[in-house]
Design a protein that fits this description.
The complex is a heterodimer of chains A (about 300) and B (about 300). With about 300 residues, chain A is mainly alpha-helical. Chain A has 13 helices and no strands. Chain B has 14 helices and no strands. In chain B, helix 3 packs across helix 14. The two termini of chain B are about 45 Å apart. The chains are: A mainly alpha (about 300), B mainly alpha (about 300). Chain A: It is a multi-pass membrane protein.
Chain lengths: ~300, ~300
């Protein structure tokens, strides 16, 4: 945008100085964001002696993945010493169905609310959208009771239900705002040709949807994987997702404090969303801006 | 399964499938809408009702008026939590917006390696607050963290013990939360800056306006909607902050860094005071609504005018 170097005036020494200041500023902040990751990574590769005798920024003398193995297989979380492994798989088993189902329901609902508008469709959308704004504390207590009543308290299916329900307002918002910009003429033409509701969805809408599907899946994946509140409120012991287990691992006070294991565990927990971010950062940013409720 | 259903609707002509075809959109919306009505509106109503009872470990349903709310506002921890929210929230929002905006403007000057820098600024947004808290707890711990690093570099008297100082611990939350969220603010501002008409800027530049003046007088005022969005999103994050406190300070030292969400959790799940927990949850909802409703109102009005 502000490409002022192309403007007349030339490069004065004053301009080069400003340029230098600009890069200094950008690099200082790059350090602020990246150093914690480097510190965590290097701590996870050191042994305990090295941590005690070295400093935060000293690099490990040799690369040593012991802490990672320990965090995955052996570390104690509360009283059970199983490592993060079972909790990590809990999170996987919770995230995948919750993401897929909430995305599919969001797509169908967004499609119905825009392309088959019926009386009250806008009101229904507004009422669903309200769910994006609530602090989840107002639903924790009845949810805990309902999960108990349905006999899925402290189970992965219980968490799947919770994440589907409270992810829906966002997935509906994403798809609704995307579909609203697809010309209605497409639908009219298909209807005249005799295509029904699901045929149009399947043959016309879905082939147009890959960008918004990716955005929604990434958004839901990060939200659900990173959730702590629901996990901490509705599960105990072996049913916990990995974020809750990580927090318990770090705060387990028995025995020697193994900082390298804590850091390795934090990285294991962060890995899935970081990988998604690196692979699909562009869509991640789009989801964030769409999720910021402009529409 | 979908094609099967379509096929069923195509032969039609019978009254039932006709009815189905006319109402299929409503039928598809119904499950989602039903879930939202029950799990959002129904649950809020239930929590609201329980907040007016003397429920302890199990819900009771005899109406007791504002008993829990009066009790709530008399409790020191709740007042500390609201105070913390105010201090943490205002600093977090202010710093994140200023920093995010500044970084966006800096990145918008045709810098080299912009893509890499953007990725670095934004990645913390992809990870959980629990991880952010764990990492910063390690960095800020006085024994082996920044404090000992500075001392080992020869600055013997350097002290940075905010994490264990009940006066200062709330500011460590600000450091970590800004680290996590300012990249996101940057991304929103950068997207908006890319949409500013460059002709106007060139014209102003040729008229002799300085770069800083162009930004302050011409560009930033056009970004008002972005400021509002950021303000709104960050406020929302601040009110909901729970996991960062759990992971970074555990609410301590003492209860000096608890937030309303932590108070609610503690009362509801640990102390068997669900009436009080419900009342605090309703106060949080009221806080969020006090910000959301004017925001949505202004958004809708702007759309009508524009």
């Amino acid at each position: 945008m502000a490409d002022l170097s192309a403007l007349p005036g030339g490069k004065s020494p004053w301009q080069s100085a400003a340029r230098f200041g600009l890069y200094t500023l950008l690099l200082i902040f790059a350090a602020y964001y990246i150093l914690p990751l480097i510190v965590v990574l290097s701590t996870s590769l050191k042994d305990l002696d090295e941590i005690r005798n070295g400093t935060l920024l000293s690099l490990p003398s040799e690369i040593n993945f012991d802490a990672w193995g320990y965090a995955w297989n052996e570390a104690c979380i509360g009283v059970s010493c199983t490592g993060l492994k079972p909790y990590f798989w809990n999170s996987v088993a919770m995230t995948i169905p919750a993401v897929l189902i909430s995305t599919l329901l969001g797509a169908l609902t967004g499609y119905s609310l825009t392309k088959f508008k019926f009386k009250g469709a806008n009101l229904i959308f507004a009422m669903i959208l309200f769910g994006c704004f609530i602090p989840f504390q107002v639903v924790l207590l009845p949810m805990a009771q309902s999960l108990g009543y349905l006999r899925i308290a402290n189970t992965v299916p219980g968490l799947v239900l919770v994440h589907i329900v409270y992810g829906l307002p966002f997935t509906v918002l994403f798809f609704r705002n995307y579909y609203v910009n697809i010309p209605d003429d497409l639908i009219k033409a298909a209807t005249i040709d005799g295509a029904g509701f699901f045929m149009i969805f399947w043959r016309i809408m879905l082939p147009l949807s890959p960008p918004i599907i990716v955005v929604t899946i990434i958004w839901q994946f990060t939200q659900i994987w990173n959730d702590f509140l629901f996990g901490a409120s509705f599960t105990t012991g072996g049913g916990q997702p990995v974020t809750v287990a990580l927090n318990n691992l770090v705060n387990t006070t028995t025995g020697v404090k193994r900082y390298n294991v804590d850091m390795a565990a934090a990285l294991i927990t962060a890995a899935p969303t970081l990988v998604v971010y690196v692979l699909a950062g562009r869509y991640f940013v789009r989801g964030l801006t769409a999720g910021s409720v402009k529409g | 399964m979908m094609s099967l259903m379509t096929q069923k609707t195509i032969p039609a002509k019978q009254p039932l499938s006709d009815w189905f075809r006319r109402n299929v959109a409503k039928l598809v919306v119904a499950p989602t809408f039903g879930l939202i009505i029950f799990f959002v509106y129904g649950f809020i109503a239930w929590t609201g009702y329980v907040s007016f009872t003397k429920s302890k470990m199990l819900p009771t349903y005899s109406f007791e008026g504002f008993y829990q709310y009066i009790r709530l506002w008399k409790m020191t921890p709740w007042n500390v939590a609201m105070e913390n929210l105010l201090v943490f929230g205002s600093l977090f929002i202010l710093i994140a917006i200023v920093l995010g905006c500044l970084l966006a403007i800096a990145l918008d000057q045709k810098v080299r390696a912009e893509g890499v820098l953007r990725t670095v600024y934004l990645y913390p947004m992809a990870i959980s607050f629990i991880i952010t808290g764990t990492a910063w707890k390690w960095i800020l711990n006085p024994g082996l963290g920044i404090q000992s690093l500075m001392q080992s570099w020869g600055w013997e008297s350097f002290a940075f013990d905010w994490l264990i100082n009940s006066e200062m611990a709330v500011y460590t939350l600000v450091i970590a939360a800004v680290w996590q969220s300012s990249g996101f603010v940057m991304a929103l501002f950068l997207a908006a800056l890319r949409g500013v008409d460059s002709e106007i800027i060139k014209a102003a530049y040729l008229d002799g306006a300085s770069l800083s003046r162009i930004y302050l007088v011409i560009i930033l005022p056009t970004l008002r909607p972005v400021f509002l969005s950021c303000f709104f999103i960050l406020t929302h994050m601040a009110v909901k902050s729970f996991d960062l406190v759990v992971a970074l300070t555990g609410g301590g030292p003492g209860y000096s860094t608890i937030m309303p969400a932590n108070f609610m959790y503690e009362m509801t799940f640990r102390r068997n005071q669900i009436g009080l927990g419900a009342a605090s949850a309703m106060m949080m909802l009221a806080t969020v609504m006090a910000i959301v409703i004017p925001y949505l109102y202004s958004e809708l009005r702007e759309k009508k005018n524009g």
